Amino acid sequence: MTKTKETSTHFENKMNLNECDQIFAVGLIAGQWTLVICCHLAEKKLRFGELKKRIPSITERMLTLQLRKMEEGGLVKRTVYAEVPPRVEYELTKSGQELRPILKQLEEWGKKHRKVKAQK
């Protein structure tokens, strides 16, 4: 991992993550695909190929990168089974499962505001 210079904007953004709990939380779930992946894993454990089928617009490389990021952030658990061929499953960790009510609230908020936008 590279060390961020203290004079860079990236360093300042990292510092903000540590100062504000809301920003820290958003940093964990930020990104184009993180919430999409969480929504699918909130239903059940899924294999990589199953996730890819459920999210056809994501590339395999991006899915891999997002799953790694989510694993590092403590949202996703990766389990490798000693089988031939190898089987790998992804599931939300306890921390990731705590996002379920937040995802539900976002769903309700999205429905409400989609209707408002459609009325304009």
Helix and strand arrangement:
Elements: H1 9-19, H2 21-29, H3 34-43, E1 46-47, H4 48-54, H5 60-72, E2 76-81, E3 87-92, H6 94-97, H7 100-119
Antiparallel strand pairs: 1-3, 2-3
Helix pairs in contact: 1-2
Walk me through this protein's architecture.
By secondary structure, this protein is mainly α. The chain folds into two domains: 1-30, no CATH class; 32-119, Winged helix-like DNA-binding domain superfamily/Winged helix DNA-binding domain (Arc Repressor Mutant, subunit A, Orthogonal Bundle), CATH 1.10.10. It contains seven helices and three strands. The chain has helices spanning 9-19, 21-29, 34-43, 48-54, 60-72, 94-97, 100-119, and strands spanning 46-47, 76-81, 87-92. It starts with 8 loop residues before the first helix and ends with a helix. The longest helix has 20 residues, at 100-119. The protein has a three-stranded antiparallel sheet.
Whole-number tally of structural domains: 2
The top level CATH class name of the largest domain: Mainly Alpha
Q: Describe the main β-sheet briefly.
A: 3 strands, antiparallel
What are the secondary-structure elements, in order, as H or E?
HHHEHHEEHH
Amino-to-carboxy terminus distance: 48 Å
Please, what is the CATH homologous superfamily of the largest domain? Answer: Winged helix-like DNA-binding domain superfamily/Winged helix DNA-binding domain
Strand share of the residues? 5-15%
Count of runs of 4 or more consecutive helical residues: 7
CATH architecture assignment of the largest domain: Orthogonal Bundle
Here the CATH topology of the largest domain equals: Arc Repressor Mutant, subunit A
Number of strands: 3
Low-confidence stretches: none
**Judging from the principal axes of the Cα atoms, what is the shape?**
globular
**Strands ordered across the widest β-sheet:** 1-3-2
